Amino acid sequence: MASRFAAGSAARVSPQKSSDQVEDTLIRWLLILPFIGLMIVPLYNVQEPYLFGFPFFYWYQLAWVPVTSLLTYLVFRSVRHDG
């Protein structure tokens, strides 16, 4: 049992992140944008301007649905998948 741990410790990867890992981490930060955009309610808690008869409060939230989908797709396609 002790030899298994000894062999595993020799094969450990260095703690430094590669440039791919750093890029993956940075691109994943795009996923926080919808969260921030929707959590700050005073930013969009108004009625005007109207779009197709909908107050800003509603169409702003609805607009985040395709934006969030697009951001999720971009992050998924940009992050490197091992395996």
Tell me what you see in this structure:
The chain is mainly alpha-helical and 83 residues long. It is 60% helix and 0% strand. It has 4 helices and no strands. It has helices at residues 2-10, 19-28, 32-39, 56-78. α3 (32-39) runs antiparallel to α4 (56-78).
What is the arithmetic mean of pLDDT?
83
Which residue ranges are poorly predicted, with pLDDT under 50 across at least 5 consecutive positions?
none
Query: What percent strand?
Result: under 5%
Class by SSE composition: mainly alpha
Give me the count of strands: 0
Shape category: elongated
Q: What is the N-to-C succession of helices and strands?
A: HHHH
Question: Structurally, how many domains make up the residues?
Answer: 1
Count of alpha/pi helices: 4
- Cα(first) to Cα(last) distance is 28 Å
Largest sheet: none
- Percent in helix: 55-70%
> Which value, in Å, is the CA radius of gyration?
22 Å
Topology of this protein?
Elements lengths: L1 H9 L8 H10 L3 H8 L16 H23 L5
Please give a handful of descriptors for the protein shown:
83 residues; 4 helices; 60% helix; 0% strand; elongated
Give a short summary of the structure.
With 83 residues, the chain is an all-alpha fold. Helix content is 60%, strand content 0%.
